[in-house]
Amino acid sequence: MLHCFQPLLSLIPIPFLSAGENFDQSPLKRTFKSKVLAHYPKNIECNPFDQDAVNMLCMPKGLSFRTQRDSRTPQFHSFLITREDGSRTYGFVHTFYEEVTSPQICSAMQTLHQMHQAEHNASAHNCPSSSMDSLASSLDEVESPSSQGGRRSCGCSGEGYDSVRDTLYVSKAMCLITPMPFMHSCKGFLSQVHRAVISHQPPPLPLESYIYNILYEVPLPPPGRSLKFHGVYEPILCQRPGVGELPLADFPLSEAFQLLGVENLVQIFTCVLLEMQILLYSQDYQRLMVVAEGITTLLFPFQWQHVYVPILPASLLHFLDAPVPYLMGLQSKEGTDRSKLELPQEANLCFVDIDNHCIELPEEFPQFPNKTEFIQELSEVLLSFGLSPEGGNTSPDPAVSMQTSTLEKELKSTSLSELVDDRRNGNLGGEALDVLELLQGNPTLERLQALAKRTGVKVARLEALVAGQKAVGEESVGGRSPAEEEELRNAKLNVQLREVFAARFATMFADYESFVIQNSPDLESWLTNREQMHNFDKASFLSDQPEPYLPFLSHFIETQMFATFIDNKIMSQWEEKEPLLRVFDGRIEKARLYNVRAPSLRSSVYQKCTFLKESAQAIEQRLRKIDHTAIHPHLLDMKIVRFMAHDKYMQEARNLGKNLRQPKLSDLSPAVIAQTNWKFVEGLLKECKMKTKRMLVEKMGREAVELGHGEANITGLEENTLIASLCDLLERIWSHGLQVKQGKSALWSHLLHYQAREEKNEQLSESPVSNGQEKRKLESSVGLPALRVSLIQDMRHIQNMGEIKTDVGRARALIRLSLEKKLLSQHLKQLLSNQALTKKLYKRYAFLRCEEEKEQFLFHLLSLNAVDYFCFTSVFTTIMIPYRAVIIPIKKLSNAMTTSNPWLCVSGELGDSGILQITKNVLEMTFDCQNLGKLTTVQLGHDNSGLLAKWLVDCVMVRNEITGHTYKFPCGRWLGKGVDDGSLERVLIGEFVVPCSDDDGGRGTKTPPLQRSPSQIRRISITSLTGRGNKPTTVQIQESIGEAVNNIIKHFHKPEKERGSLTVLLCGEGGLVWALEQFFHHGFRSARIFQKNVFVWDFYEKVVAFVENADQIGDLQETPEPLDLNCESFCRYVNAINTMPRNIGKDGKFQLLVCLGARDRMLPQWLPLLAECSVITRMYEENALLRDKLTVSSLVAVLETLHDFPITLESSLTKSVEL
């Protein structure tokens, strides 16, 4: 079961850290290098011994010394070594202090103390400059917890060492190594061995007997079975879960929950699932291990795929510089201030301060699905075991510890007698209990027993059993000690907590198999094409999930642990199923038998775990009734004793490193470190290539859908997930090899250094910052001044946004802004162009100082310019943004200027600006308002005052001064009384203007422009009698109506957050109003000789007048009731529009009526009324579509399809209308 047993001791005290970093401390506070004194057996092929790694992890801080004044309580901790193939080895360490008997070591300690006193009086502490150096120094600033007094006066003689006065002690450790985490068993065994070592009475057998027994004679329990073996003084129990149960996990989850509380642990668990960087921080090594192992245990059926070092030795602090997800544990010292702990990367870091029960979470952090109900269920499980869900101090009460110690002494003699009496492979206690149960359950035997009592006859054996059972019931169950009952209680709590977590995954991924893509004929071809293949239909999977789950799941299915899980599923068709996958699939299959449901009926209703009682019973059954008892320890053959002789044992330990060359955790040679960093650089570049490719392909696929090809395979949620992932990647790239940082964001720190240098140069030259500044030209942007392109300017925009409070948030905002402006690659290239600054901030091996990789990285980012993102505008929805608006009249006409007072109102997907008054004869204005999102409409009007009140406007241009997005709102019509349709205000529909710079490389495609307001040219072609050849045919009109209705239906089938503006689909070019206008203009007698043009609205007014007049004289008395109601509603709507105070003109009124009719589902009811009214014969030609009953009935059917959807209108369309 176990690999080796080893004591550790340092023979020569050597400073563990460099002198400059550690010599300012008293020698008793310093750490010294340890070494392996001995280990046994020599080697095992399947589990080779890594001497350096075991040495470091047994004593991560190194060797330490104490005197009689210091606390020397033995400590237990465990550790884990992950090998290159992913296999894990567990170590369990019992550390204690032993008196130093060597005069040379005592003399050396005396000399070191005298040197320290002299140096302390002569020199001052030097501050290191780099992040990693400052991290190491911050961990050494505070004194060891072993000396509580006078922490600040480490040079005083009272704290020093005097070889005559003081007794010197040195740390020593015993360690058991095993491939499986039998923590309780190993802890109990090591504790008993140490008691035997320090006891004044020798143990029953030599220590070698117990060590040989546990290494060679104690078997591994079979799956689903329990085993009892014997330590030095007491028996020890261990058990293994069955094949269909959750895998073995012996670390106490109760301790992890009590240390952190349920809510904190769920948050950390979510960070681990999303593969962020997690750093555990505690004074206690075992706490680090318990929390790390506890969290990774809860990941079932998934497995952590990245760097996993629960206890990070002091010599490996450079691991924290790794630009990859990691889960590491760092030992703190009592009183260490968190603010002084400078870490290389903090932008995506979850910092867990275990001792203070607090965590620091990354920003933009999605919550775990059903988090509140999930925490409630976990709390109920904890409360059922008498534990607080909020957590608290788990240190045992001193009185309880003393009582337990007394109990152990009392049990010692009982246990020794049990060693003699118990058969080697028997379970006598269990057999006797079975006999008692049989007798007590038999009514005939019970009557005989009662008769025997009345006659005075005693059944001695039965009475003894009953009495013993009663005594056990009063003291502990089944003849078990309180410690064994506590172990059973912890095991039951462990498995129930794990079942709750496993049930959540079984619910969320119950139908995951339906979305696995398996299209390879064999394993070899699948492995060959693995990176180019999509193995999981993510878009379909997300569309099948409840809405509240999406923020978490969209991130989680992009992780490496989920990809590995799917890979294992695919490979299971050719190979044996991976154990975790087999158990998980079994759970899902079992749940389906009890609860059959269709995949489409997904619900976010929380479902509690149903396996709690069953799993706890399995554990209890195994631990209450032991299945096997191992062979007892015994005296060894002399050959074995000689084989384990101490001298040869130590010589083998010294020679092992020469003969065995395995991958070593502690190999710190420059070549190895360089190779590791080069792998990081290659990995970052590969990840950048994959992320940008994914973003580009998915986005271009969506644009193809907008052009009418294929189906959408990316949602706004997925897009946001990919961009957040890109932000995380950039932070990790900027953190790699960093040596000077301010704040938590490495990228923003670099930007601030760059900004400071540029602003200093600007002040010296007394000229605007010119480096990298360009003027971006805009198509059709007549009248708008060019927008200056500048990294510094964009930084200032971000710094002025008070809504963003942190450096990490500012860095991500700048990335999103640059991506939206298609300047990400250009801005970062400009930032890195200052090579002197980069050399100052980064070490030589850093990614940003690898020229070839840096150029490829910038090229990959440049490819993102091929698509349009609105990732800044759509995320920062509450910020204040400056806008610039320019009104462009048709200047070739004489009355380009007006004497009236113009105004405008800009509307977008997120709101409107309100009415903005424009200074008379000034055609440009700037205004600040809350982010409007993508702009949709502009209301433009004037008050008709003065002599020149008529105004012919070509278009309105509006630009977002932060993002540079420019929108054009075509008009091409008059505003004024007595001209055109008499409108004093118009609602204009916007179109996005694509920027054109001199260097337009990388633009392969572009997003199709938004629909725009109908132009004057189109209206003239319809309303004028001239130009008949340009009139649309009846087929074209019917097709345009069908297309407009289809676009509205598609709009409502999109996710709500991705629908965009419905106003554009109603009023824009190609919209419903535009299509119906063509229908009503077909065959319309719009022009008269020597008279003004007639508009469709005039026809509506005549219909209303006719209906109202006919109603007064009684002509409509015989009209069917539905038609009568339609007449009433039509008249009410038309009169309400006519009486409103707005002067929107006749075409504007037509547009408003169509929009209101679509909203209130009235259009299909009004059309028959208009077609059957006698007014139609005077205003429409014989061949008009409106006079064709078949066409009208067909149009009614098409419009009725809109009744299934809730059409809402912008306030810019409906304000002032009272219905």
What would you note in describing this structure?
With 1219 residues, this protein is of the alpha+beta class. The protein contains 42 helices and 26 strands. The strands form six sheets. Strands 1, 2, 3, 4 and 5 form a five-stranded antiparallel β-sheet that branches. A five-stranded mixed β-sheet has the order 9-10-8-11-12, with helices on one face. A five-stranded antiparallel β-sheet has the order 20-16-22-23-25, with no helix packed on it. Helix 26 packs across helix 28 (807-820) and helix 33 runs antiparallel to helix 35 (1072-1081). It is elongated and about 125 Å long. The termini are far apart. About 15% of the residues have low confidence.
Task: Describe this protein with a few key phrases.
single chain, 1219 residues, alpha+beta, five-stranded antiparallel beta sheet, five-stranded mixed beta sheet, 42 helices, 26 strands, 12% strand, guanyl-nucleotide exchange factor activity
What order do the helices and strands come in, and which of them pair?
Elements: E1 4-8, H1 19-22, H2 51-58, E2 65-67, E3 75-82, E4 88-99, H3 103-122, H4 131-141, E5 168-178, H5 183-198, H6 207-217, E6 226-230, E7 235-239, H7 253-260, H8 262-273, E8 277-282, H9 285-297, E9 307-309, E10 326-331, E11 349-353, E12 358-360, H10 371-384, H11 398-421, H12 428-440, H13 443-455, H14 460-475, H15 482-508, H16 523-528, H17 538-543, H18 550-556, H19 560-571, H20 579-594, H21 612-624, E13 628-629, H22 638-643, H23 646-659, H24 670-706, H25 716-735, H26 746-765, E14 774-778, E15 787-789, H27 791-799, H28 807-820, H29 824-832, H30 835-841, H31 851-862, E16 880-889, E17 902-908, E18 911-912, E19 916-917, E20 924-930, E21 935-942, E22 951-960, E23 966-975, E24 985-989, E25 991-993, E26 995-996, H32 1016-1023, H33 1034-1053, H34 1062-1067, H35 1072-1081, H36 1096-1113, H37 1121-1139, H38 1145-1159, H39 1163-1172, H40 1176-1179, H41 1189-1200, H42 1211-1214
Parallel strand pairs: 6-13, 8-10, 8-11, 9-10
Antiparallel strand pairs: 1-5, 2-5, 3-4, 4-5, 6-7, 11-12, 14-15, 14-26, 16-20, 16-22, 17-18, 17-19, 17-21, 21-24, 22-23, 23-25
Signal peptide: 1-19
Keywords: Guanine-nucleotide releasing factor, Membrane, Repeat, Signal
Domain PLAT: 881-989
